[in-house]
Amino acid sequence: MTELQPKPPSVIPVVLAGFCAFLTLFAPQPILPMLADVFHASKVMISLTVTASTLGVALAAPVMGQIADRVGRKRVIVLSVMTLGVATLLTATSANLWMLLLWRFVQGVATPGVFSVTTAYVHDEWPVASASSAISSYVSGTIVGGFSGRFLAGLTAEHFGWRWAFVLLGCIGLAIGVYVALSLPAGRRFARPTEMVSLAAGVGDHLHNRELIAAYSVGSCVLFSLTAMFTYVTFHLAAPPFLLGAGTLGSIFVVYLMGAAVTPFAGRIMDRDGHRTMLIRSAAIGAAGALVSLIPRVWTVIAGLAICSTGVFIAQAAATSFVGFAAKRNRALALGLYVSFYYGGGSFGSTAPGWLWQRFGWAGCVALVVLVQAAVGGLAWLMWTPRSVID
């Protein structure tokens, strides 16, 4: 007789954890022109408010994976969510750009305790056959969180000032932290490794896995593209002929909701067709959307962002899910390492296009994103197996 599998936990706390992870990470994007004026900073310098957080994520992610393997997933998730809320509140007290960058870095350090550890929690607690769908629902939570943070930051900053934007987001984060602490079940299937390996040995083991290397490279390209598009489009739309204000710039991130709707559906297709096929499709969608945004109309720029971000989110779900399947052991560390590469790419994506912007404007940023999306498709074609490793 087939043994009945235990029912997986509710996905709601997992989705809210993903929401919180991205609520503040990119929240400054719609108010970057405002912050540049407040702190008298160049576009490249003020973009460091995004880079500081993504760099913090990249540095902390492998360590968070190791800690989660020792003390348990839920404990790290809850502590990280609460830390995010407190650090966001403290961001509002910044007296200069360097203090702002410091608190943004602290937010980044806390983020992988939510992002990568929640992904490991899902792979522990959900049946293999439905894990991709659960991860896709979690990714949808990150998408809604990313939109909400940007929208609320832009709207609040325009009417009440930039400091109140961070106060509001910090309070929301703390409220979610309390809910997750009360509602997320302790791991039923989590087992501490019998032999803990050193961080260096664990990283070395994963970096000898050809498919993980490809997944990490894809992750770098994924967030590079998303950060490049949504950081510099605010400067593009704040300048003539568009001249959009902070509140309106925050509202354009509603395009994230299209990705939130599509990604769970894409997860079901991914379960059927495999990760490589889905990733190649997503790269084509991302490149097409970037090209559409070149048409000099507000609605076409927004349509291009919607198409591009949808492709990027599907790629994120494919790569994140693939890492969980491809890692043979030390899964939390494998996912933490993926997050390091992912946000390393995002850190580069928030600053590198600035140099192209100075010479070529928005067209230079778009050309770079298209090249990176082509690299995503090429990596999937050359280095991933045609079907998921669980087949």
Largest sheet: none
Distance between the termini: 23 Å
How does the helix and strand content classify structurally?
Answer: mainly alpha
> What is the count of helical runs?
17
Give the strand tally: 0
From the spread of the alpha carbons, the general shape counts as globular
Q: Which parts are unreliable, with pLDDT below 50 for 5 consecutive residues or more?
A: 387-391
Percentage of helical residues? over 70%
Q: Please give the radius of gyration in angstroms.
A: 20 Å
Order of helices and strands: HHHHHHHHHHHHHHHHH
- Overall mean pLDDT score? 82
Strand content: under 5%
Notes on the structure:
79% of the residues lie in helices and 0% in strands. It is built from 17 helices and no strands. The radius of gyration is 20 Å and the shape is globular.
What brief labels describe this structure?
disordered C terminus, 0% strand, single chain, globular, 391 residues, mainly alpha
Topology record:
Blueprint: H1 12-23, H2 32-38, H3 43-46, H4 48-71, H5 73-91, H6 97-110, H7 112-125, H8 128-160, H9 162-183, H10 199-206, H11 210-238, H12 246-251, H13 256-273, H14 275-292, H15 298-326, H16 331-360, H17 362-383
Helix pairs in contact: 1-7, 1-8, 1-9, 4-5, 4-6, 4-7, 4-16, 5-6, 5-7, 5-9, 7-16, 8-9, 8-13, 8-15, 11-15, 11-16, 11-17, 13-14, 13-15, 14-15, 14-17, 16-17
